[in-house]
Amino acid sequence: MSTATATAAAGTRPVRIVYFAWVRESVGLPEQTLDIPADLATVTDLVRWLKARGEGYEAAFADETVVRAALDQVHAKPQARLGQAREIAFFPPMTGG
After folding, report:
1. Rounded to an integer, what distance in angstroms lies between the CA atom of residue 78 and that of residue 94?
2. Which phi and psi angles does 49 have, rounded to 5°?
3. Strands across the sheet with 87-91, in order?
4. Rounded mean pLDDT of 12-19?
5. pLDDT of 94
6. Distance in angstroms (rounded) separating the CA atoms of residues 94 and 41
7. Which is higher by pLDDT, 94 or 68?
């Protein structure tokens, strides 16, 4: 069975997740590739799934309204559908300047 077939059979899919600034510091990683459950539908679903992975994730996403996300380098709202995004980035709010 190929890796892709095994992944599909398990109901997961690989996604590159990138963390910036204090989100990265809390999680302890700049990025990682995770096999996320195929039934995660929105950015909020993913955040809640990540929070269950441990203390660093819980700290990074303690206030779900603060952290921003981008799906394949396009800013996304918490209710945005993950679709087939291959990369999801999380970062704190930014100010202009």
Report:
1. 16
2. -65, -45
3. 31-37, 12-19, 87-91, 68-71, 74-76
4. 97
5. 78
6. 26
7. 68
Long-range contacts (CB closer than 8 Å, 24 or more residues apart) made by 39-42: 39/11, 40/82, 41/81, 41/82, 42/78, 42/79, 42/80, 42/81, 42/82
**Three-point CA angle 36, 16, 52, nearest 5°:** 40
End-to-end CA gap in the chain = 52
Whether the Cβ atoms of residue 90 and residue 18 lie closer than 8 Å to each other: yes
Q: Which long-range contacts (CB under 8 A, 24 or more apart) does 93-96 make?
A: 93/66, 93/68, 94/68
